[in-house]
C-alpha cells in the first residue's frame, strides 16, 4: 500500500509550556530557570518525532484563538505541514514543571475547548479530503468536550473506507469505541490498559496477556508501553518484549508519542514487527534526552536502536 505521508490527527491540541525550576515547592513563589512554549498535544509530538526521522508529515487539528495560531505556527516551525480546522473557542494551554533538583515532572493539563456539531462536521470533511491521498493515519490524544466517545471509531471507519491504515492512541471510552471499529494498531500505556481491563498489570507476562486480550477485542496489533522498562507488542501470530536502553532522563513527556512515531515510520518503511518495535523503543528513549517533547535526534535514535533488546514471548 502506498503511504506518501503520515497524517497526525489532533482533536485536542495545545500550547505546551515546559518550565524548569531549581526546586519546585508548593504554596510559595517558584522562579524558573527556563521556559519554552511550544505546539503540543500528543499528535504534535508524534508529528515532530516522525519528521525528525525524515518522513513527510501533515498535522490535522482543531484550533481556535491566539493560542491556536501559536500552535499552528509551532507545528510549521518543525517542518510539519499544519492543516487546521477553525473553532470558536480557544485552544488549551498545558504546563510541564521540571524540578531540576529531584528530576520529578509535574503536568497541569487544561480541559479542551467545547467543539460544536458544525465544527466536528468540518473536521470530518477535511479528514476525508486528506484520506483521498492514502496516508498512514495516527490519531492520538484526548477528546475535547462536544465530541462523542464514538468519534475515534468514526475516524477509524472513515479511514478504512478510504483504504488507509489508522493507529489510535487514546484512553477510556474513546478507546473502547475505537477498538470495536478494528484499527490497525492501538498503543495504551500500562495504566490505560489496566483501566480497560479492570485489573493490575505488573509483570511482563501479565502485560503480554493484557495486550492479547485487547487485540482480541478488535485491534490488529496492540502495543503496551511500560515506561522505562520498554514495551510489549502482540499481533495475530507473535508476541514480543523489548527492553529499553537506560539513560539519564530529562523528561518522559512525549516518550509514548515518540514511540508511536517510530512504529509508524517503521511501518511506512516496510519493516517487520520486530524492527518497528526496535525503532519505536529507540525513539521513545531518545525523547527522554530531548529538550522538547517529540523533538528527537535521529543520531540518538540510530545509536539507541543498536542497544534495544527484543525477546520473543509465547502467546500461550
The general outline is globular
- The structural domain count equals 1
Total helices: the number is 10
Strand line-up of the largest beta sheet: 5-4-1-8-9-10-11-12-13-14
Largest sheet: 10 strands, mixed
Report the radius of gyration as a whole number of Å: 18 Å
Mean pLDDT: 94
CATH class: Alpha Beta
Named at the architecture level, the CATH assignment is: 3-Layer(aba) Sandwich
The helix/strand order is EEEHEHEEEHEHEHEHHEEEHHHE
By CATH, the superfamily comes out as Ribokinase
* Strands, total number: 14
The CATH topology: UDP-N-acetylmuramoyl-L-alanine:D-glutamate ligase
N-end to C-end Cα span: 32 Å
Query: What does the oligomeric state look like here?
Result: single chain
Helix content: 25-40%
Derived structural class: alpha/beta
Strand fraction equals: 15-25%
> Poorly predicted ranges (pLDDT <50, ≥5 residues)?
none
How would you describe this structure to a colleague?
- The chain has 316 residues and is of the alpha/beta class.
- It has a single domain, classed as Ribokinase (UDP-N-acetylmuramoyl-L-alanine:D-glutamate ligase, 3-Layer(aba) Sandwich).
- The protein is 37% helix and 24% strand.
- It contains 10 helices and 14 strands.
- The chain has helices at 42-52, 65-77, 117-131, 151-161, 172-180, 190-197, 204-216, 255-268, 273-287, 298-305, and strands at 6-10, 14-21, 34-40, 57-63, 81-86, 92-99, 105-109, 136-140, 166-169, 185-186, 221-225, 231-234, 239-243, 309-312.
- The strands form 2 sheets. A 10-stranded mixed beta sheet has the order 5-4-1-8-9-10-11-12-13-14, with helices on both faces.
- A hairpin with a 5-residue loop joins strand 6 (92-99) and strand 7.
- The radius of gyration is 18 Å and the shape is globular.
- The relative contact order is 0.14.
- The model has no long low-confidence stretch (mean pLDDT 94).
Amino acid at each position: 500500500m502506498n503511504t506518501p505521508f503520515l497524517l497526525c490527527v489532533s482533536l485536542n491540541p495545545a500550547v505546551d509550556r515546559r518550565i524548569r525550576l531549581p526546586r519546585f515547592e508548593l504554596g510559595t513563589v517558584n522562579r524558573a530557570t527556563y521556559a519554552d512554549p511550544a505546539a503540543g498535544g500528543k499528535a504534535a509530538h508524534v508529528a515532530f518525532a516522525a519528521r525528525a526521522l525524515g518522513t513527510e508529515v501533515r498535522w490535522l487539528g482543531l484550533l481556535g484563538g491566539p493560542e491556536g495560531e501559536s500552535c499552528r505556527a509551532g507545528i510549521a516551525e518543525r517542518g510539519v505541514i499544519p492543516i487546521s480546522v477553525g473553532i470558536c473557542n480557544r485552544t488549551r494551554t498545558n504546563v510541564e514543571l521540571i524540578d531540576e533538583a529531584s528530576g520529578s515532572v509535574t503536568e497541569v493539563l487544561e480541559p479542551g475547548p467545547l467543539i460544536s456539531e458544525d465544527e466536528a462536521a468540518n473536521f470530518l470533511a477535511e479528514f476525508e479530503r486528506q484520506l483521498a491521498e492514502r496516508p498512514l493515519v495516527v490519531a492520538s490524544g484526548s477528546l475535547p468536550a462536544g465530541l462523542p466517545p464514538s468519534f475515534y471509531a468514526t475516524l477509524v471507519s472513515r479511514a478504512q473506507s478510504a483504504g488507509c491504515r489508522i493507529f489510535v492512541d487514546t484512553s477510556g471510552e474513546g478507546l473502547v469505541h475505537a477498538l470495536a471499529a478494528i484499527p490497525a494498531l492501538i498503543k495504551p500505556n500500562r495504566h490505560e490498559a489496566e483501566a480497560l481491563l479492570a485489573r493490575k498489570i505488573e509483570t511482563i507476562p501479565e502485560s503480554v496477556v493484557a495486550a492479547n486480550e485487547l487485540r482480541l477485542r478488535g485491534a490488529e496489533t496492540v502495543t503496551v508501553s511500560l515506561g522505562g522498562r520498554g514495551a510489549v507488542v502482540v499481533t495475530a501470530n507473535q508476541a514480543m518484549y523489548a527492553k529499553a536502553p537506560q539513560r539519564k532522563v530529562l523528561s518522559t513527556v512525549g516518550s509514548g508519542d515518540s514511540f508511536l512515531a517510530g512504529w509508524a515510520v517503521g511501518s511506512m518503511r516496510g519493516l517487520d514487527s520486530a524492527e518497528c518495535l526496535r525503532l519505536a523503543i529507540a525513539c521513545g528513549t531518545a525523547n527522554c534526552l530531548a529538550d522538547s517533547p517529540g523533538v528527537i535526534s535521529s543520531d540518538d535514535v540510530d545509536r539507541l536502536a543498536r542497544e534495544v533488546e527484543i525477546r520473543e514471548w509465547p502467546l500461550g
